[in-house]
Structures are given as structure tokens and as C-alpha cells.
Amino acid sequence: MGIIDDAVDRLQTIALACTTVNVRGAPSKPVEDASVLPLAIAHITEGTGSCDDSTTARLLLTVSVDFHFSRVSMKSAYTEINKIIPEYLQRLAGDPTLNSKVDTIVFPVSFSVSAAQWDRVTTQMVSFKIPLKFRESPTT
Prior knowledge:
Elements: H1 2-16, E1 24-25, E2 39-51, E3 57-70, H2 74-93, E4 104-105, E5 110-118, E6 121-136
Parallel strand pairs: 1-2
Antiparallel strand pairs: 2-3, 3-6, 4-6, 5-6
């Protein structure tokens, strides 16, 4: 399903475009230490599908965008988290159709902050939950 991949990729691109904190994409190989942080990864977490009528199908997906920060200094981690939260939300508000990849982002976007594990590294993570609405004509 190319439209879903395109939307997830666009959310990742927006995450990597943040300028208040230098964020990298998640590495493809396991990491041993916090040197790769901060990093971001976008992934689908849940969704629903329905048909409005015989001509239109609706898909509502929630995509998580997780930003992982080093816990070596909690003060530094929260300084970066406090910068990334408003910037990422502003960037989402500025591109509610994700460059025409989705019908719309369904605001509000929620987020939470918690300790997490990225490979073997314990991180402090802010996870955005972004509801996306897609409308499509069903395949017959």
C-alpha cells in the first residue's frame, strides 16, 4: 500500500527537518551506545477501516513518531524534548495533508514522554500519536 508508506515517510521527513534539535533517522543496525541519539522513527500503531457507501472507503490510521534522546543527562534530554514538542507540532500544523499524501491529519495530536529502550540503549522518548484520514474509492 504505497499511500500508507508515503504518509509514514512524510512524517519521518518532517521529524528529520526539525532544526531546534539535530535529529537523525533510526539506524538499520543495532546500536551499542547513545552516540546515535537523538533519533526519530515513524511507524503505524493502529487503525480502522470502513465504507461510507458503495463508492468510498475510509481508512483512519494512527502513526507514532518516536523521538529518542540520551538519558546520560536528564536535564539535556528534557531541554531537547521541550524544544522538539512545539516545533514538531508546528510543522504538522503547517502540512496537514502531508504534502497531499493523506486527506488530513485529524487534530488534536497527542504525545507522551517516557523512558524507553532502543536496541540496548535506554532512552527518554517523546512519542507523538498522529491520526491520519485517508479516503479512497474501493476496488471492485
